[in-house]
Amino acid sequence: MMKIFKRAFLFLAAGLMLGACEKNAIPEVTEPVQEGGAYVKFFFQVEGAPRANFYLDSKKVTAVAPTTTSNIVLGNAYGSVYPSNAYAMVPSGTFNMSAIDTVAGKGTADVLASTSVNLAANKHYSAYLAGTPTSYEVFMVEDNLPPADYTKIWWRFMNTMADMPFAVDAYAVRSAVAATETKPAEPVQVYELGKGLAFKQHGPYVELKPGTYTYKVFPAGTEYDPATSKSYIQQSFSVTTLGRVYTTQIRGAYAETPKAAQIDYWRER
């Protein structure tokens, strides 16, 4: 049994070495990260951008599975996140974080944007490729996650919509609940997720009750009623699972009439 195990291990190691030697490949993280690494989620928020991947110095830390017809290095498209509903564990330390278009099939790589980052051990971060196809930007924020509690739901708001002529106010509006034989009716409830949030800014995590919500974003400084007024952009869905932590984001570039795809949410935990 031990001999079989050793042969299997050598075969796996050889496979990793061959994969790392692919022509024109950019070095990737293939070894496991040691204890004391940092946790990062990577977002691709530029509509019209080429597919790209994030790198820490020269090592690729995001990934897309290759197609069945080629082994071309693929990148992440607009609106995607890596990894979905989780964090990637990466080494802690100071790095040059870059978003790179690998120009599939040409054997070249174009750096869209980069920035210097310091990743502290055991902390959580969200990293973004934001801006426009003529002005890319990479930035990172620390995710100060609330304590794990499987009796609560937490939500925050993040503004990554480029070229907005105004800051925004964000709300989670819980729909009224009709009375039942065992429970009284519940009125509409409004939760403030942040006010005056400019590009690259976010609000705190706010505790929400289970229910059906509409997430509304208004231009800051204007008159409105969060419960009844039409917002600049909004999204509705049900919040049911306890113990979760989420972020709603607006992305892409500003337009007077935004697209529905420019608001979405992702789960941190």
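(ticket continues) Second input and output from the same batch:
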Amino acid sequence: MDTHYYFSISMNKSPLMEEMSVLFSGEGRPVEGHYIGPAVHDFYLIHLVLDGEGTFETLGESYRLGKGDVFVIFPDILVKYEADKQRPWSYVWVAFSGGLADAALSELGVTPDRTVIRSDRPTRLRRLFRMLRKSLDHHSLPSLGNAESAGWLRLLLYELGKEIHRRQSENGEGCSTNGDGEDADVLHQPSYSRIDQAVRLMNLQYAHPLTIEGIAATLGYHRSHLTKLFKLATGLSPAQYLFKVRMKKAERLLESDLTIAQVASSVGFGDPLFFSKQFRRWSGRSPTAFRKERQSSAE
């Protein structure tokens, strides 16, 4: 069954992971009702809606989007986006990663709980996406394509920052406070910053002996309160999410030459037998059977 009326993508052959590099960029028009997720990604994604309508869901919030709107996806945050059943959207997107990405977005005011940018001036943004893709498609030297695409990405972020600032100025944001002197806009936005910290902690520290109690204490929450907020934001309890992260990492490591014991230790299990039991619960197969199946399919 076809899921898109058209779909095209360009890849960066020489990304630099320690900086901020474009991974790929594309354009598509999904069919009516086509959706992606709920799922998490390993990279950042910026979508610009060119036409039509759709819905974007993240951190317990749902946004109805149309032409000119931008939505940003953060790594390891559960999201779902779906084309309208009558007027399916078309959009362009860019995926990127790197140690500077989070800070660059945060400085613009784009955070996991503020990922939608409304714009009535999409022409400039569309042109930047077009030039970014061109830089990936037409360089014979991948390193030059990486350098140029990174430049276009920064210009894209610059334009998004200008749009955010313009909207805030028009709406009087940034100076609006309540009687206690607190930012009224912040008070009316559900803050999931600590949940995002918990998600990132699990994705970075999954190999360590994490406990939900310890994570809650680190964030200043009682375990039950953290579980409630976490499930609202991601659809999973903290324990379920950590288990999923560890099992997904284990799947990747089982494709390597590491022993089962080494894989177990690498994803936070000191006991290989207990790891094998948990992996079977996850995949329905033992780690050894899973590895053999992957090896056979690769041949």
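Agent notes: Residues 174-191 have pLDDT under 50 and may be disordered. The two ends are 27 Å apart (CA to CA). Closing as not reproducible unless the customer responds.
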